[in-house]
């Protein structure tokens, strides 16, 4: 469903992704771990074409992201076509990114039919908060609205960038419950998180990134309990 092949990304002279390749099957849940600054957010942002790659390519369900091939050459898609492509890719940010002047329901209805907006608000257990504004919701509830909004376009994949990092500890559980539920229902997901317990329980595969490369990957038991690389061991010894 997601194919990332040989992706390089630099900001000026800083090479942040140094040849990243990653395939995610339909229905698979991949958790990305790694130290701060290792390129996790940049990787997610390139998948959504929020960042353009310098080398390599990305496809979602076989469709090239951000470009069209014509006459053996790549042409960048127009903004309108990129926006259309992004509907296939749900993105959940660390800081919720809700519109403060819109209610929970209106935030979702910005991107979907009203009936779908209600359906997905119900799915995250917040139908009783439909008319509440973000400031009237807890951080956990705001993030659940953001997840409902990400689902409401019925994307093929959903990307989560540290979805619980901005939450008070007592609110983390309700958001992880929603993610767990999505994972069980067969949603194709890539989740950047430091919640190791969640990763162990929910991930089909864990990918460990450091310094712009994927250092190792495998099933949770393998990567968490028997890491092969010194850098993975060093990271885990700090977070476990
Ligand atoms: P992570 O999510 O793993 O913490 P990031 O992908 O956010 O890592 O960042 C990787 C590196 O790229 C960091 O050194 C960061 O400062 C740098 N970086 C990220 N975005 C930009 C940008 N827009 N311009 C310049 N440098 C950036
Ligand atoms: Mg990040």
Q: What topology does this entry show?
A:
Layout lengths: L1 E10 L2 E11 L4 E5 L6 H8 L7 E6 L2 E2 L2 E4 L2 E4 L2 H8 L2 E4 L11 H6 L4 H10 L15 H14 L4 E5 L7 H16 L4 E4 L3 H7 L2 E6 L2 E6 L1 H6 L4 H10 L1
Parallel strand pairs: 3-10, 3-11, 8-9, 9-10
Antiparallel strand pairs: 1-2, 1-4, 4-5, 6-7, 11-12
Helix pairs in contact: 4-5, 5-6
The structure holds adenosine-5'-diphosphate (ADP) and magnesium ion (MG).
Organism: Lentzea cavernae
Main location: membrane
Subcellular location: Cell membrane
Describe this structure in words.
GO terms for molecular function: ATP binding. It is a peripheral membrane protein. Belongs to the ABC transporter superfamily. With 240 residues, this protein is an alpha/beta fold. Helix content is 35%, strand content 28%. It is built from nine helices and twelve strands. The protein has helices spanning 40-47, 79-86, 104-109, 114-123, 139-152, 169-184, 196-202, 220-225, 230-239; strands spanning 2-11, 14-24, 29-33, 55-60, 63-64, 67-70, 73-76, 89-92, 157-161, 189-192, 205-210, 213-218. Helix 4 crosses helix 5 (139-152) and helix 5 runs parallel beside helix 6. It is globular and about 50 Å long. The protein starts with a strand and ends with a helix. The mean pLDDT is 97. Adenosine-5'-diphosphate (ADP) is lined by residues 11, 14, 16, 34, 36-42.
